């Protein structure tokens, strides 16, 4: 929103050559030199697709939900997490590169760390809600059943809260479905030096991140979890997608524009998406898996989410290439009221993400304890989206009031946009 | 994610011919108790020696408490079901279930029991404790592969059995990636997977067993184990391509 306040709506970027590039359906073209202009209009596609990703993550986090049959994870290798992390990297670079350029690496870096702190606080808040829900479950649940004598041990952490809470504060103990924010926190903690390097030599920075990704795969580098094991989303692998997003925001997309414009890219991307779709169908209809040759399945499986499998990464790239081709930055419908709900959610992603985690707990709880059946699952899924949209609208409204009463100069502070990273 | 498969497949199952006797599996969908991966040693043992020796490696969910627990848990029920369906064959099922065992720990104990018992088939129930402990996926995958290799190398057929379904713990225990790895190893090593998760869910949805019930009533647990034993016997008979004696009463 602060960019919107800054930019003149509807005006293309300066520089005729660049304006033509973006109009040609390539990704956002933003100058990467240290003295880059700041008055670029916010790319609504980022907000739109991040908003949609938040909805999909919400659906996917309701176990046994009929609605999550239709989320993108069922139709290929990658899922909404990739979209969310890529766009987060993109917007983080967009917002913080400005403050790092104008105020130096120390202040720029400090702002990134402040954002990491906010997300940490949000995560701990969600953890408290999770614990409350578990405490309730323990008192009124079928876990006392003889059938579940083993599963009841999953609540062992309630028996020694001292250890549990400390491990949760250290981000080592992460309940199921609460892995994304810790990943995001670590990515932001690593981000100041990466962003600094990206601004100086984008290619070297990206090459280093690819090397780190390769090492994480080769040497099994990952962070430790509690009580055992490692992080479900390995930050040392997933950083690649985040940094790639940042790299695109800082001029990479522009450099790739010739690739994105080429028909060959489009054909290859479409073919790959079709291939992934066909493979995904064999998961649901195992009878068709005979059509996958042995050598292919040997090479392909398992498709590792923890370490951001190359197949997942490339699947996301193919999706992005197709999307960028068919949804140009200046598409008129991006401003229509029909896509406004998703854009609103995407603009307040931290708040809406946290709300989504809470709502998925709540929806699961209601479907288990009160109203079973798929009709209720559909109703709750859509009610959840409505609540997310209403909350996002409320936050926008509140911020616009705050901004109206505050000193106008504050709006030019890039960090305000931090609320939207 | 693969939990979706189960329901998606129900449609296929409805279209497919029901090879298994419904009453014998408590109404579990037939595609869940049919095996495309054959149990050749089971087939040979029954065909040549007229005997079948099975060992169950598992954790707490393969047992029931109480003095009659061993007789009521699914390994004993499996033995009873196989004897009913294969009269004249000497069937024995040994249960080696211990609490709090990761897949890795179980693999280490395999050789001891294989030497003692010389089974034809091992039913390996695992994954639950690994999921609760958050064991690294790669380690879990390695243990699964090692275990299946060890068993097949010892001349034993293998059936993998995954977790129980509990609607209430779906949000608490992240079983999905572990279940997926088990599916993958089963496919890769061409061993049957007894999809306990999907089967229990289908029973719950069909009202065969109420898994929501907040009760300490042991009879629900006994009924569940009886049904699991029957469904398992269907899988073994199908995957071992064994002939059921038709005119024998089913109950």
Give the arrangement of secondary structure elements.
The complex is a heterodimer of chains A (421) and B (251).
Chain A: H1 2-6, H2 16-23, H3 44-60, H4 80-139, H5 161-169, H6 180-200, H7 202-218, H8 235-255, H9 257-261, H10 263-284, H11 294-300, H12 310-326, H13 340-347, H14 349-369, H15 374-405
Helix pairs in contact in A: 3-4, 3-13, 3-14, 4-6, 4-8, 4-14, 6-7, 6-8, 7-8, 10-12, 13-15, 14-15
Chain B: H1 3-15, H2 40-49, E1 51-58, H3 69-72, H4 74-85, E2 90-97, H5 103-117, E3 121-125, H6 128-133, H7 137-153, E4 157-161, H8 176-188, E5 193-194, H9 196-206, H10 218-239
Parallel strand pairs in B: 1-2, 1-3, 3-4, 4-5
Helix pairs in contact in B: 4-10, 5-7, 7-8
Description of the molecule:
The complex is a heterodimer of chains A (421) and B (251). Chain A is mostly helical and 421 residues long. Chain A has a domain at 38-70 and 332-421. Helix content of chain A is 64%, strand content 0%. Chain A is built from 15 helices and no strands. Chain A starts with a helix and ends in a 16-residue tail after the last helix. Chain B has 251 residues and is α/β, with parallel strands linked by helices. Chain B has one domain (3-239): 3-Layer(aba) Sandwich (Rossmann fold). Chain B contains ten helices and five strands; from the N terminus they run ααβααβαβααβαβαα. In chain B, strands 2-1-3-4-5 form a five-stranded parallel beta sheet, sandwiched between helices. In chain B, α8 links the parallel β4 (157-161) and β5 (193-194). In chain B, α4 packs across α10, α5 packs parallel to α7 and α7 (137-153) runs parallel beside α8. Mean pLDDT of chain B is 86; it is low at 10-22 and 247-251.
